[in-house]
Amino acid sequence: MSDSQDPSDTGKKLPFRPAASKTINDPQQMDQSPETPEDKPDSAPNSPKSQSLEELPIEFDQAKKKKKKNKTRPKSKRGKNKPTGFEEYYVDAPITPEEFSAEKELYNVSRPLTHRIEDALLRYQKNRRLESDRRDVFLKYLAYGGVNVGQRMFGGLDGRDLQQMDSEQILQARSMTSVGKDRSNLTVDFDAVVRGFLTSFFPYYFNPETEDMIKLATVTIRNFLSYLLYHDVCPEYNDNIDQARNSCDIATRELWNNHQLMAKSPGDFNSCCSLLFGGELHDTYVEDNQWKNSKDDAPRLTTETARKIVKFALAGAGENRHALRFQELTENDTLCAVRIEDIDGFEITAVHPPGEDVREFYQTHAPDLVPVGKLLARAYRDPGMPDFDLSPEEQVAQQPEKNFEFFMEDNILQYCYPGMKVITPVWELNCGFHYFEDAYRTYGSNYTPLVNDLMLGWKEPRDLAKAESDGEDDSSVTL
């Protein structure tokens, strides 16, 4: 027992050995092959074992893994900057001989037109990027033309279904447009549908506020019509489709002018005539009305200002017979105006901007007023409105065509063009000229009202009594 030692003393006499040097996540050491006896670090003069604990180097910097950078697509091919197919100078790429042969069989004239239109719609929507606003206009145009638009019932697909289909079947399954069999006997007129949609339906359903919104609609429809021509979808209607494209160009030029005239009419001269002689302003005007709207800094129209505007218009742009007759009736206090009945408005036949002599006259004597030009028009009745309730005798009697002569400021006259239709009340002064009030609606030169808009959302009538007796659910029936 005398040879036993205290464990604590034994621990004090044992030398400390430093741990093997390891660098965490060191790729060089991880890739090294197993060491051979000749390459052991003990044989090196500066091996960790031969160094003291205090001299052992400690590495704090660790190698960082480099992340792989994904190859980014250019800005022109991602997000909102991605090409849509509706750019100004965009054209379809030339087709290959294989594609030509496939389309020649697909759009063969022997196939029904409805089937060819359906196939063309599928491929057109696949090759174009229709954004939300453009898509709304395009689908409404198709519905206006008789195409069924909407998600097909039981048309949901999952990944397993798509894997079992080819590209043509996937295209058919994802389709949202179709032409019903009941539409196959309707008259086909691409030009009439375009004119009816752009001139009668689009301006008052979508209410475009900018010129770009108008171009969005006309360019989209024209692009689709060009696609039909390029791929020879319905060659028997190529001339009609070309006329429809021309109608799109006309609507692009005219719709914004219509919108501007409706917003800025009737102008100072016609407003003054309404205040002085008869009309909406004459019935609501109160002399010496001192009330002032704090949010409206525009000067108020008074009878004194109105007389000045009317007199300078007659002296500058009017004829001598008008001015003399106006002065004579004013002196006799017999000047009056009468509203013309049995018309909806007028159609512009000629526009005469103020000449240089009229501009000089205004610049010299009334620089605070806008020069006035002339507008020639004829009576117009809107074919899209119900007919007037006339007796048989009145219907037989041929009413002579009424022609009008208006005065209008140059800043508003610039939006007028021959063929424009303006729906507004028209008044006639007994001195020989006319004036009108606010324009309720304005139509283009190719205005075409159709009954297609009445068929939007129409459903086949059902016998509710029979459906109830058969136990069918009639909750979805629209009366």
Concise account of the structure shown:
The chain has 479 residues and is of the alpha+beta class. The chain has 18 helices and ten strands.
Helix count from the secondary structure assignment? 18
- Order of strands across the main sheet: 6-5-4-7-10
Give the low-confidence spans.
1-5, 7-12, 27-45, 474-479
**Largest sheet descriptor:** 5 strands, antiparallel
One letter per element, helices H and strands E, the order comes to HHHHHEHHEHHHHHHHEEHEHEHEEEEH
Strand content: 5-15%
Distance between the termini: 114 Å
> What level of helicity do the residues show?
25-40%
Overall mean pLDDT score? 77
Structural class call reads: alpha+beta
DSSP strand tally: 10
Question: What general form does the structure show?
Answer: elongated
The radius of gyration computed from the alpha-carbon positions, rounded to a whole number of angstroms, is 41 Å
Describe the structure.
This protein has helices at 7-13, 27-30, 97-106, 113-127, 132-144, 159-163, 167-173, 190-205, 211-230, 238-264, 268-277, 280-284, 303-316, 320-331, 356-365, 392-396, 410-413, 464-469, and strands at residues 148-149, 177-178, 337-339, 345-352, 372-380, 403-409, 421-423, 426-429, 434-436, 441-443. The chain has 18 helices and ten strands. Among the domains are: 97-262, no CATH class; 266-284 and 301-438, no CATH class. The chain is elongated. The protein has a five-stranded antiparallel sheet with strand order 6-5-4-7-10. Strands 3-8-9 form a three-stranded antiparallel sheet, with helices on one face. Strands 1-2 form a two-stranded antiparallel sheet. Helix 5 (132-144) packs across helix 9, helix 8 (190-205) runs parallel beside helix 10 (238-264) and helix 9 (211-230) packs antiparallel against helix 10 (238-264). It is α+β, with helices and mostly antiparallel strands. Helix content is 40%, strand content 9%.
